[in-house]
């Protein structure tokens, strides 16, 4: 008899554990005021004010890619905190430019290089070459 009890004990324990786990799952609300409130809260937390967006852009590096009318491709990393831009040309050259005060738009320059622009347009000038009109693509 004790031999049968030892064999039945693990099965009894297993059955007790499984029945404890088989509680009815709680239902999540799918409509009503609670759901609308959560949805509104989620949208509100993702929204940023204009000042927050501007602050984020001014305090990080922003990358832009320009295609120019002379078939050159420029990848520009605008490092706003340092007031610099690094221009990488399609032939592998990299140039650090320093931000200048522009009346409108952007203006970065170094001794032989100049990048000016507004919106998605820019002019890339290198000494002893014709200026290249460029357009941002990314």
From TrEMBL:
<dbReference type="Pfam" id="PF09864">
    <property type="entry name" value="MliC"/>
</dbReference>
<keyword id="KW-0732">Signal</keyword>
<feature type="compositionally biased region" description="Basic and acidic residues">
    <location>
        <begin position="25"/>
        <end position="40"/>
    </location>
</feature>
<keyword id="KW-0564">Palmitate</keyword>
<feature type="domain" description="C-type lysozyme inhibitor">
    <location>
        <begin position="66"/>
        <end position="131"/>
    </location>
</feature>
<keyword id="KW-0449">Lipoprotein</keyword>
<feature type="region of interest" description="Disordered">
    <location>
        <begin position="25"/>
        <end position="50"/>
    </location>
</feature>
<keyword id="KW-0472">Membrane</keyword>
<feature type="signal peptide">
    <location>
        <begin position="1"/>
        <end position="22"/>
    </location>
</feature>
<dbReference type="InterPro" id="IPR018660">
    <property type="entry name" value="MliC"/>
</dbReference>
<protein>
    <submittedName>
        <fullName>Membrane-bound inhibitor of C-type lysozyme</fullName>
    </submittedName>
</protein>
<dbReference type="InterPro" id="IPR036328">
    <property type="entry name" value="MliC_sf"/>
</dbReference>
